[in-house]
């Protein structure tokens, strides 16, 4: 959220003991946790709660066709799911149940805000799957897992996949939802999610959506997926493609 210098609190904590720039792992973790708790106070202060419905939202900068200011949407890219992950992780690392109510309210909000049925880890209903899996893995919330499974099953049922229609990009395309479905398959031990992720992967457009190197936009998220499927399927042909992609010339911009 657009409310703090991301380095301010870390620098403030470091400056409190300016002669000690090298921390042990535990000392550094303690400093980072303190910084996260300060950030949380700023976020909480700006929260708008509805006590009747036990929901919450924030007014901030978001992307809706163009950048604007308004209540946060249901997209992982710039909305409530990202704040949900922050609180879920903070609860896990601090073992503090004072964050339970905020987490419950964010959940209620993301469950009720309308979302498009999009095969994406950053936009639409698909963007709720990963945050819910994080909650399950960190805090053992079985309800979060059940909802993640319900959303994934709905997307599998409603979203037929056609060749060439899937964008080869991590954020604006389909590469990230492939990784999320692989994680869901690992957690549930249900092969249908791995099979569906492989089906998406095999039908990705051959060219990266943005024609340059990078992970968020570019070829390297595809390289990452190649390595994932190589470990799962033991497919030597995919490993060969990984090697080729590393040694190809830099793609030329159109």
Give a description of the structure.
By secondary structure, the protein is mainly alpha-helical. Among the domains are: 1-46, no CATH class; 160-254, no CATH class. The protein contains ten helices and six strands. It has helices spanning 8-15, 25-45, 80-94, 100-112, 129-139, 142-158, 175-188, 191-202, 220-233, 236-247; strands at 48-50, 55-57, 59-64, 66-71, 166-168, 204-208. A two-stranded antiparallel ribbon has the order 1-2. β3 (59-64) and β4 (66-71) form a beta hairpin. α2 crosses α3. The radius of gyration is 20 Å and the shape is globular. The two termini are 34 Å apart. It comes from Enterococcus faecalis (Streptococcus faecalis). One of its GO terms (biological process) is peptide modification. This is Lantibiotic modifying enzyme. Pfam families: LANC_like.
Gist of the model:
Helix content is 54%, strand content 10%. It is mainly alpha-helical and 254 residues long. It comes from Enterococcus faecalis (Streptococcus faecalis).
């Amino acid at each position: 959220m657009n409310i703090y210098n991301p380095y301010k609190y870390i620098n403030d904590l470091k400056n409190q003991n300016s002669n000690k720039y090298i921390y042990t792992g535990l000392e550094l973790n303690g400093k980072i946790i303190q910084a996260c708790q300060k950030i949380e106070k700023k976020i909480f202060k700006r929260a708008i709660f509805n006590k009747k419905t036990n929901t919450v939202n924030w007014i901030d900068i978001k992307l809706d066709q163009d950048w604007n200011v308004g209540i946060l949407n249901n997209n992982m890219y710039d909305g409530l799911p990202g704040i949900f992950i922050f609180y879920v992780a903070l609860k896990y690392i601090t073992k503090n149940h004072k964050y339970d109510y905020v987490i419950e309210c964010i959940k209620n909000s993301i469950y009720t805000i309308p979302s498009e049925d999009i095969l994406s880890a950053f936009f639409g209903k698909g963007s709720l799957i990963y945050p819910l899996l994080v909650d399950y893995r960190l805090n053992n919330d079985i309800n979060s897992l059940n909802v993640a499974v319900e959303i994934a099953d709905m997307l599998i049922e409603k979203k037929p996949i056609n060749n060439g229609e899937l964008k080869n990009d991590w954020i604006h395309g389909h590469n990230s939802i492939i990784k999320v479905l692989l994680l869901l398959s690992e957690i549930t031990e249900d092969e249908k999610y791995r099979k569906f992720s492989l089906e998406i992967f095999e039908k990705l457009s051959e060219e990266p959506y943005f024609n340059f190197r990078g992970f968020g936009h570019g070829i390297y998220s595809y390289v990452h997926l190649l390595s994932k499927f190589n470990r799962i399927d033991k497919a030597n042909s995919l490993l060969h493609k990984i090697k080729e992609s590393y040694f190809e010339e830099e793609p030329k911009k159109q």
